[in-house]
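Purpose: get a first structural picture of the assembly so the mutagenesis plan has something to point at.
Setup: two entries, given in the order below. No constraints added.
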Amino acid sequence: MVIKRFICSLISLAFFGTGMLMPAQAAMVGTQVYLQASDRHANIAIVDAALLRSDVQQQLSDLGVDVENARQRVAGLPDRDLARLAEEIESMPAGGTSLLAVVGIVFIVLLILEVTGVINIFKGR
Amino acid sequence: MRVAVAAAGVLIALAGCTTGTSIKPTGHAVELTDVPFFSQQRYQCGPAALATVLVDSGVHVSPEDLVPLVYVPDRKGSFQPELKAAARRYDRLPYVLTPEPAALFAELDAGNPVLVLQNLLFDWWPQWHYAVVVGYDPDRQQLVLRSGTTERRIESFRSFFRSWQGAGYWAVVALQPGQIPASAAPDRYVAMAAESESLIPASAMALVLEAGLQAWPDDADMAFAAANHARLQGDLVAAATRYRQALRIEANHVGALNNFSDLLFTEGCIASAGTQIAIARGLVPAGSPLDPVITATAEAIEAAPQTEDQGPLCDSLTAIRPTAPPELILPR
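Result (structure tokens, whole complex):
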């Protein structure tokens, strides 16, 4: 259990430490940065679309996660987590024969919900 | 691909789960017979499907030209971001549709072929496939696709919508700069424009934003995007006009407040810049991704000698133009 938890923290660190869109010192906000930071509705729509995929739903329910519940929780996430979740999902591959995309989406959704304390799949129950 | 498609037909019949489709488009059957067909080699459905929509929108290109841009041999397929990037290389705007059947029908009604992603096999063993929808028949509950090696593939609503749902209803149309998609939603359109900034020529970008503002004159984000583009092009007066337009629509638009303030500051209009950024600072919660940049703008302005507006452009940048409709002041 401790090891599981450690690994989870490690992954979270790696995940959150990279790929963050930081405006830095530049004093002008680019359109895309602004939209990503502020457009909550669009982000919810992106995540929702991913959660509506039947393959994603299958994986989630195999893991014992109630999809409807997950969707509601996603809608309640803070802007920052929501933006990152949407961004990660949008950069997922979906060409050719690949299980990676589904596994990736499911993993990221669970990780975000886990880190924000909504569920505790990785810690067991 | 042919084998996979045939197999999918059998397997989908066996699968028989998920929701029954209750999709009832109204109107007549539509088929875009002029859309070209490129027979697809095994695994190369991405380049062929993209070439289909690009050629239909007036680009001279072949699937072979697109293979190095979008095909990933290791994965025997193409990624959606790469398809979008390749479209931009040919000065076309990849507009991702609202994920619902109504958007697909609206585009077909308007004469736009739609590139779709499908999952032809199972959820647990997906077979991703790109195809182009070119028509539908509401009475027969069928769609017509350019798919694989089949020029006119007929799929029932039932099996198509299942395979499309399996891919998150992902669908894209290739727009000419200035063209508004039939199913367009302003937030998706402005996001498409923002994604394309600096990836397509500035003149094309101006057309995209001009069309967006004409379609949605009351969209603050659209005016904000046009303002940012004008500023990047060095058209400062046009940028200021657009920032003010965005703020008239949405007084609390933090992005417009910050960028307008920054523009005023760099042009020596310190007093006006200070007024704008003070409003922005009061609106942005700590922890917002925009907080660092707004704080940086505010601190830069505070550190400057506090004077009246002195720059030569200040009058034009802050001027209120009560009579001129904003649509006519677009950057060229």
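The CA atoms of residues 117 and 170 of chain B lie 6 Å apart.
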